[in-house]
Specification:
Helix 1 runs parallel beside helix 2. Helix 2 links the parallel strand 4 and strand 5. Helix content is 48%, strand content 24%. A five-stranded mixed sheet has the order 3-2-1-4-5. The protein has a two-stranded antiparallel sheet with strand order 6-7. The radius of gyration is 16 Å and the shape is globular. It is of the alpha/beta class and 172 residues long.
């Protein structure tokens, strides 16, 4: 049993989602969006750091999964996104938590089955997989998707580790 905190970083909105992994079953714990005021970038980074630290202290996850930076609309946007991501990663590492990183395409592939999935598809699948009563906000759904992707990846690694032999390309 492990609590996983997924983070979808952003310089104006950072999504977070927490799931409990029990074997191959996943249970929703919490999610939300950290809304960052339009202040200077260093002050925004402090808000992200403080907020992620507070979430970690409240829910005590064992692992943190963060979406990797992709080339956004411009190099400046990508740099801001990278710095926001860095603030979240430092908050996790500061609490001695292992941090795992996943590309957006891998997250979408893992959750939706299509690496080019749209936002509404991710929201729908997260709602379905976690049996949520309502559709989560975009950034929260993305963060829950990152957590689900991590849980799926860890399950796959466990299956491979438990496999003793391979016969004709299949685990036995």
């Amino acid at each position: 049993m492990a609590l996983v905190l997924g983070i979808d970083p952003g310089s104006l909105k950072t999504g977070f989602g927490i799931i409990n992994c029990v074997g191959s079953k996943y249970e929703y714990v919490a999610s939300g969006v950290i809304r960052i005021p339009e202040v200077s970038l260093p002050e925004r980074l402090k808000v992200i750091f403080d907020s992620v630290t507070e979430i970690i202290e409240e829910y005590c996850p064992q692992e943190v999964a963060v979406e990797q930076v992709f080339m956004a609309k411009s190099a400046g946007s990508a740099l801001k996104l990278g710095q926001a991501r860095g603030a979240a990663v430092v908050a996790a590492v500061n609490q001695d938590l292992p941090v795992f990183e996943y590309e957006a395409r891998k997250v979408k592939q893992s959750v939706v089955g299509n690496g080019g999935a749209e936002k509404h598809q991710m929201q729908h699948m997260v709602k379905t997989l976690l049996k949520l009563p309502a559709t989560p906000q975009e950034d929260a759904a993305d963060a829950l998707g990152v957590a689900l992707c991590h849980a799926n990846s860890q399950q796959h690694l466990l299956k491979v580790a438990k496999a003793r032999t391979f016969r004709r390309g299949r685990m036995v």
